[in-house]
Amino acid sequence: MKLSAYAQGRDNNFNLIRMVAAFSVLLTHCFALVGGSRESEPLLSMLGMTIGDIAVDMFFVTSGFLITASLLSRKSMIDFIWARMLRIYPALIVALVLSAFILGPYFTTLPLSGYFLDPDTWFYLMRGLLPFIGFSFLLPGVFEGNPYAGVVNGSLWTITFEVLMYAQLAIFWIMVGWGRHSFRKTDATGRKKNVWVPLMHLPGLRVVWMKRVVLAYLLPVGVYVLAARWFEFEMVRFFPLSFMFFTGAAFYLFRECIHLSSALFGVALAILIFSLFHDSVPFSLVYSIVLAYCIFYVAYVPAGSIRQYNRLGDYSYGVYVYAFPLQQALVALIPNISIWQLMLLSSVMVVLLAVLSWHFLEKKALALKMAFADRTRVFLQDNLLPASGTKGW
């Protein structure tokens, strides 16, 4: 059965996949936070990457697929922007506020007056609210005695790259004509077909054939390079994650050509396991493709009782953004805590926090996206643009 047929519905296992990925990141962080570095993580010595690294790749492949679908299904760019903002910001703001105003004052080695007067306290919040320029991970005097000293929330770095992927995708949509009116045409048989077929990536390189596509690629990369110089990003992380994200995007765009079957899944899984043991560019390319295939097979094909998880909610983002500072606090409060004790305690506590966050904050915020988008359009029409100025936006 084609991927396109599965992707038409909303009943899938993506929530469960993301939850598994979030807990994989949590597990990897347990090794680093107890031991002071991630070198003791078992998979690192075997594969050169941790289970958390694989989980982050899973997040970006999944995100590329779903965000592309979201963008192409929206009636305007304003809808897309509000949907993304209301997914990212509510839980992120809570994580930043809890870290800066509850954990920070409790665990800092500075006097409270010194803590709140220190510019780094407010710098942490400011950069947290502007994820596209990168996060600050330090609060003055906080967790300085921990084995993984000083880092308050080391999970947030991926959000910077996630936002950059959204920006790139939006720029492609605008500049290449991914609008609902312009990116599709009807052929002689009455079937809709893609006018522009993006061959998204080779490692570090987009295969492009239009000047607008080149510009759409170079513009966000150029902005990112400048930001990297100003804010000391790790540029080396950008291209692999961009590759994973746009592999997911390409799977969505080519969904009519991709068949999901148990036989192909078995082959893809075997190749995936084999590719994990080979650190080279060709195997990195193979790894991303077969990882994506395995993700989408697991997301759509297994049905039945496994789908009951969707009745609970989408807790993965809450687990991801709240876990690290909670783990650091547990390490600070419980001397000589073991990796597995930290895993157990932090898992129970962060799930409770994530459940509350989803039902009382994130879900309610997402319900406002259409209202906010409509108000934004009205504001633009009334104050900034002529009557037709927001068409397509």
Automatic annotation (TrEMBL):
TM annotation in the entry: 16-34, 46-68, 88-110, 122-143, 155-176, 213-231, 237-254, 261-278, 284-303, 340-361
Keyword Cell membrane carried by entry: no
Gene Ontology molecular function terms on file: acyltransferase activity, transferring groups other than amino-acyl groups
Keyword Lipid biosynthesis: no
Keywords, alphabetical: Acyltransferase, Membrane, Transferase, Transmembrane, Transmembrane helix
Short name of any one Pfam family annotated for the protein: Acyl_transf_3
Cited PANTHER family: ACETYLTRANSFERASE
Name this polypeptide is given: Acyltransferase 3
Organism, scientific name: Thiothrix nivea (strain ATCC 35100 / DSM 5205 / JP2)
Source taxonomy: Bacteria, Pseudomonadati, Pseudomonadota, Gammaproteobacteria, Thiotrichales
